[in-house]
Amino acid sequence: MLLSKGYEVHGILRRNSSMSKGTMDLLPENIMKQISIHYGDVTDGNFISNILSKERPEEIYHLAAQSFVGYSFQNALSTYDTNIGGTLNVCNAVKDSSPDSRLYFAATSELFGQPKESPQNELTPFVPRSPYAVAKLAGFWTVRTYRDAYRLFMTNGILFNHESEVRGPEFVTRKISQGVARIGNGSDEPIVLGNLGAVKDWGYAKDYVNGMWKMLQQDYPDDFVLGTGEAHTVREFVEAAFTLIKIKITWKGSGVNEVGLSEDGRTLVKVSREFFRPLESDNFRADYTKALKKLKWKPKTKFNDLVRIMVNSDMNKIKAIKLSNLA
Ligand code: F7E
């Protein structure tokens, strides 16, 4: 999106021994060629300061994080190191080395925990329920504190779940779209999930990056909620995804014994304790009135379109692999 707006784009990547670029490997080569990559880590304050004093970016999108909520329960300290320490490094580097930069910080709807009031907006209390959310709360307040104390342009985006065809495979939406595409291509391997009743507000990431950019074009820094205003369960996501391959799922049993069956009696969805979290954060539904008013932002992609985009993309990927195997 930034390249299409004519920006010079720099990105930070952690080096690894296989030299894989993670999800950035999914970007087309002509896009990758236009991005200057700097190898380094957000937990290294010297590195972040050096890069900011050298490049003096006009806008910084600070998305670097351990972003998987489930993992944060097993690895709380490394989540805190990256998500709190990393954010502090970025804020210090902006303050000391590039104070004219405008900063976007990826806060999250996870800050709301399991809200009693619905929908949620910028005034809804934060009651985090995972190490990930606790760390993001510290990041949120670091940004607010630096903004007020040092008069810096620092913005918190409180984004609800934003998904796409390049979502990591361990997140529930991609796990479902990949599983459905596999089954649609002849596999009998069921999709194994955790809490089917979790209620989330899922939107399309492409809509949200535009909102992030708009936050940095404002006259003053502020905090904004972005979401769709629609709530759906994991179960509904599963049903919508299977509909696309013309399978109607019926549910039988309860708890970890629940299964999703096709009309011809095949078990296509199972539940396992493994994918439940010690504490759930859900009951999410965004009230994005402030973003609509001030940013003129609203989501374009509806729930069913999001599911279709993800399932079609995974179906096409499997077809392409099949074709290349034939060649
Ligand atoms: O879980 C339930 C699970 O891991 C969604 C991140 O981008 O959005 C994301 O966090 C829901 C949860 O994403 C499975 O219990 C059921 O309620 O896809 P998820 P998330 O935790 O909502 C927020 C806004 C962020 O900030 C995060 O960085 O789905 N669920 N069964 C499952 N979840 C997973 N991963 N796998 C399952 O098998």
What structural class do helix, strand and pairing data support? alpha/beta
What's the CATH topology name of the domain at 3-164 and 204-230 and 281-302?
Answer: Rossmann fold
Distance between the termini: 35 Å
CATH architecture tag of the domain at 3-164 and 204-230 and 281-302: 3-Layer(aba) Sandwich
Largest sheet descriptor: 4 strands, parallel
Number of helices: 10
Got a strand count?
Answer: 14
The chain-level mean pLDDT equals 97
Bound molecules: ligand F7E
Strand order of the largest sheet: 3-4-5-10
Q: From the alpha carbons, calculate the radius of gyration and give it in angstroms.
A: 21 Å
Task: Describe the protein.
By secondary structure, the protein is α/β, with parallel strands linked by helices. The chain has a domain at 3-164 and 204-230 and 281-302: 3-Layer(aba) Sandwich (Rossmann fold). It is built from ten helices and 14 strands. The chain has helices at 29-32, 45-55, 69-74, 76-97, 131-150, 172-184, 205-215, 234-243, 289-295, 303-326, and strands spanning 9-13, 35-39, 59-62, 102-108, 153-159, 162-163, 191-193, 199-200, 203-204, 223-226, 232-233, 250-252, 259-261, 267-271. The strands form five sheets. It has a four-stranded parallel beta sheet, with helices on both faces. Strand 13 and strand 14 form a beta hairpin. Helix 6 (172-184) packs parallel to helix 8 and helix 6 (172-184) crosses helix 10 (303-326). The radius of gyration is 21 Å and the shape is globular. The structure holds ligand F7E.
